[in-house]
Design a protein that fits this description.
Blueprint lengths: L1 H19 L5 H14 L1 H8 L3 H19 L5 H5 L3 H24 L4 H12 L3 H10 L8 H17 L11 H11 L3 H8 L4 H16 L1 H23 L24 H15 L4 H23 L4 H7 L1 H26 L1
Helix pairs in contact: 1-2, 1-4, 1-15, 2-3, 2-15, 4-8, 4-14, 4-15, 6-7, 6-17, 7-8, 7-9, 8-13, 9-11, 9-17, 10-11, 10-12, 10-17, 11-12
Length: 343
């Protein structure tokens, strides 16, 4: 309870600052406040001590609730309205971004699990995608902290840098919006970036971004299948004796295997389907969006509060460099796709 109450107070502050300065997304502010809570002398002991269990609960379980409600922002009709050419381009950007980011991370000698989470977050939808992939791959909660910090850093940079490139690159509002939706990580960061170019840019940016969000389900399902196969193969290898004979070793029980698709991702897909029916009134959708912001904001504060700056500076320099290189790659891929989509 102390940790959850701390997250509520921090979230109230984040929403207040966002209301005063709309260009600063509340989700980004939640991570920043978490970082401050973990590193300021008069709050560090609290966030690492009595508040830690509640903050860890928020970072793991509230994140999953927020992912489920994220599905209510995605309407299949809006996505299909982009046309098949645009949908194929977006899928290609996601796949190329994932592969490129994973390759860059490994090139900088980051661990495989960290590389996987960074690639997932950068290519799909930021911290939400990281949480989903960590669940299906059974990656420890503390190991998600660095990827979330990196995706927040680069998404925040996008808010400040990308609008400055509109005039030098002679981009129309539509191209800029499509570029933002195809390359910025978190939904809130996409809105904050695209709105600088007006409503035309914002409209296409949100649809392109939510199309990327839909790809969370098949990406996580593919990872779940791979993880399940790997678990079965590992069990069979352990059943082989050193002399080549086969021991009587039972395969893992189904409940011991990782899920192909976590239950909260099934919930996400169900919410996409529900939104697409058109049955929900606008008031219900707005209420769900508000609840989603609360859940994800509390989760991001919890994750941010686990980041120690001195540890990050000591061990994370290669990770930051890799993230910036991946950010540049995704920006170039997204811009190429945006130009082809809008031409």
């Amino acid at each position: 309870m102390p940790g959850l109450l701390t997250a509520v107070v921090a979230l109230a502050l984040a929403f207040t600052v966002h209301a005063a300065v709309p260009a600063l997304p509340a989700m980004t502010l939640a991570v920043v406040l978490g970082l401050l809570a973990a590193n300021l002398p008069f709050t560090a002991a609290w966030s690492a001590g009595r508040a830690r269990p509640g903050l860890d609960f928020a970072g793991k379980h509230l994140m999953r609730g927020g992912i489920v409600l994220l599905g209510l922002k995605v309407g299949i009709a809006d996505v299909l309205g982009l046309g098949w050419t645009s949908l194929l381009l977006i899928a290609a950007v996601v796949l190329a971004s994932f592969a490129g980011t994973y390759g860059i991370s490994r090139l900088f000698q980051l661990p495989r699990e960290a590389s996987l989470l960074i690639a997932t977050g950068f290519s799909i939808c930021g911290a939400s995608a990281i949480g989903a992939m960590a669940a299906v791959k059974r990656i420890r909660h503390p190991d998600t902290v660095l990827p979330v910090a990196l995706v927040t850093l680069c998404g925040t940079l996008a808010i400040g840098v990308m609008p400055l490139l509109v005039h030098p690159l002679s981009l129309s509002a539509e191209v800029f919006g499509a570029w933002t939706g195809a390359s910025v990580h978190d939904v809130g960061q996409v809105v904050a970036t695209a709105q600088t170019a007006g409503t035309a840019a914002l409209g296409i940016a949100v649809v392109v971004k939510l199309t990327r969000v839909i790809l969370l389900a098949p990406m996580v399902a593919a990872a779940g299948v791979q993880q399940r196969i790997a678990s079965l193969r590992r069990a069979r290898r352990e059943g082989n004796a050193g002399d080549g004979s086969l021991r009587e070793t039972a395969l893992p029980a189904p409940e011991a295997l990782p899920p192909v698709v976590p239950l909260f991702v099934v919930g996400f897909v169900a919410m996409v389907a529900l939104r697409s029916t058109g049955w929900l009134a606008e008031g219900w959708l707005e209420a769900a969006a508000g609840l989603q912001d609360i859940l994800l904001g509390a989760a991001l504060f919890g994750l941010g509060s686990a980041v120690r700056i001195h540890t990050l500076l000591r061990t994370g320099l290669r990770a930051v460099t890799a993230a910036l290189a991946a950010w540049l790659l995704i920006g170039v891929l997204g811009l190429a796709a945006a130009i082809l989509m809008v031409q």
